[in-house]
Records
---
Amino acid sequence: MKRTKIVDIFAPELVGTQVSVKGWVRSRRGNKFVQFVALNDGSTIKNIQIVFDMEKFNEEQLKPITTGASIHVVGQLVESMGKGQTVEVQAESLEVYGTADPDTYPLQKKGHTFEFLREKAHLRPRTNTFGAIFRIRHNMAIAIHQFFHEHGYFYFHTPIITASDCEGAGQMFQVTTKNLYDLKKDENGSIIYDDDFFGKQASLTVSGQLEGELAATALGSIYTFGPTFRAENSNTPRHLAEFWMVEPEVAFADLNDLMDLEEEFIKYCINWALENCNDDLEFLNNMIDKGLIERLKEVVNTEFVRLPYTEGVKILEEAVAAGKKFEFPVYWGCDLASEHERYLVEEHFKKPVIMTDYPKDIKAFYMKLNEDGKTVQGTDVLFPQIGEIIGGSVREENYDKLMTRIEEMNIPMKDMWWYLDTRRFGTVPHAGFGLGFERLLLFVTGMTNIRDVIPFPRTPNNAEF
Ligand code: ATP
Ligand code: MN
């Protein structure tokens, strides 16, 4: 008999038919006449209630049915008399796939802390909360592909292993097959990579942007969506060493096009969650964050503030003059700290802010220089609770101006001739951004620690599972 997924079992036409359900036991309760089992198969946050009439089953048969056990039940789907569910399965046969010893199975029914569950990352997808989060994660990935596909962007695969270090010097993970106990060095003490796998020093990518620019200057509009790696030793609730990044890159786009894209894209994704993840969002709204759904709807219906950095700093300086205390100083030229960004978003404007035109010295070499010679056309999208969710920019398309920045900033461009070729042959204005997928998920789920929106987080001192 074909298995019915629990997500499909609530269809009215199934009432009165025989169904086969399979899943993991969430709980069992009852008395010597009747036993109720809440069964979940991961297809939905909802459980199906299985009713065991103890005239047909004996206590011995039901003994293995403890929290976490996996079972298969065939029975009649009927309307439920009880509270809390519309339908239930009157069990006719029971097969136990696997037991879960109550003395050792870690996920007993009581509420666990997220810290505890992180140490049980191999089992936490079986909890309601993480089931909801990972279903939402899937849906948001679909939303991303759907948005770009609908808008004529091509999904372009950029490499994970890279030999260019111009962006992430110092925070890259090295890739090598060399024997680390026997490293050959030259007379200056530098490691010789000639005999390494790639014949040169290689690392895991920190961003697909540079290769994305190659693609955009050929296919027009592209996006990447893949894992990126940063060995930054920042133990914060918003940084991972391995995270997924969405990076569109668009030929012929200017700053306004870029900001429009950023805003439209985020709203599309959030709206997608509201339309496709209702049950899971409601669960998270009830259990984790009472303001969640309201906040999502608000963002979808709000026009984002577009704020030049210089004006932002002015607002912050005025706040300080009026008595607002920040940990870090604010002045023109400073790299705004998270507390500054959150003040602007959460207290001053009370909406998402796209900050633009940053001082050139605090931004990457490839950002397009403004006519003032001091600021560049970079954008950060700042969100309530999260801070920076997107970093983007118009790229400097002029070869000479780009080279000037590279020299001023001392960027190691060895092995980067291919990137410079985009500016040598048929260069065009273009722009793009990077959105941290897990930062978006933090916002959509209402979770507060980035370790809880990726199945197996990688952070300093943590690569278990
Ligand atoms: P932050 O200032 O928050 O460290 P960043 O300026 O280093 O971020 P970018 O290089 O602009 O980030 O990367 C683009 C986007 O990738 C960011 O807006 C953010 O959403 C995400 N991101 C960056 N670093 C991380 C990280 N370590 N873990 C998760 N997401 C990240
Ligand atoms: Mn950034």
---
Amino acid sequence: MKIAVLPGDGIGPEIVAQAVKVLKALNLNLEMTEAPIGGAGYEAAGDPLPDATLQLAKDADAVLLGAVGDWKYDKLERHLRPERGLLRIRKELNLFANLRPALLYPELAGASTLKPEVVSGLDIMIVRELTGDIYFGQPRGISTLENGEREGVNTMRYSESEIRRIGRVAFEIAMKRNKKICSVDKANVLEATELWRQVMIELSAEYPEVELTHMYVDNAAMQLIRAPKQFDVMVTGNIFGDILSDEASMLTGSIGMLPSASLDANNKGMYEPSHGSAPDIAGKNIANPLATILSAAMMLRYTFNDEANALKIENAVKKALAQGYRTADIATEGCKQVGCSEMGDAVVASL
Ligand code: IPM
Ligand code: MG
């Protein structure tokens, strides 16, 4: 089983090192090869997604990614910026289905900014479309109008087939869970998402057991804070999913806990924490590696069909938390506060 390991920027290298440590401790037959992406790709080859990195990712069965981005690259031309490397690899590998589970570990109920009774038992799966929408729609750009004023343009567009294939992923996941989907759109204003709603309704005819509801994105943002446990599977487009998944992560105590899987039609996948590169804390050994370690568990589950070892990792994380180990972002009184690599060690010890 070939894994392309792309640590990226900021805290990427430290958190990925912990996930690699955990994977190695399982003694599976994994061939892991590292390559640069994002700012690291730009430094190494003048490109946030160097050809060699893309080729390695294409040849691999799965990709384990840290995070990309650093303020020091913000002044580069747009196509050279780290985020472009991430968006391109998603597009090139056709990773249209982004799964972001927001699961509250009971030990962390006190770490959420919401009241424990609002979040305890929380288990939401956000299914975010990842290769379409306003992120990729043409036309786009900044140009100068005839009157000399500048104008910025992005285009929200979704084709029927793009909506249907992400909808299908969500319905299949719902069938394995509580058979409830909430589709999030802005159908009262945006035609692209009016079509989204229509296609979801058409698709639901194939899944009579699944209860499909719809919610406008503004209301969904509110409901996630008001009563998050009403949700099971949420399916939404690229930009709404980007925003709502950050919001959902805070219900679980810290964005440092949220893993993700980005899958193509054949379950080849890229696995990365949902959080960013956090350059402000990079290199200090204080980042939370659990989202990345849990992403490695998702890799075993979705790409390698190895549910047993995925559960082993997830249970090891639970055990480390139950033993009181906490990184700074989830620290509470009386815990054993540890650094990034010590948290990795705690998970390995629990394995
Ligand atoms: C995410 C990130 C990315 C996105 C950025 C870094 C381009 O926020 O994975 O959620 O917007 O998709
Ligand atoms: Mg985001």
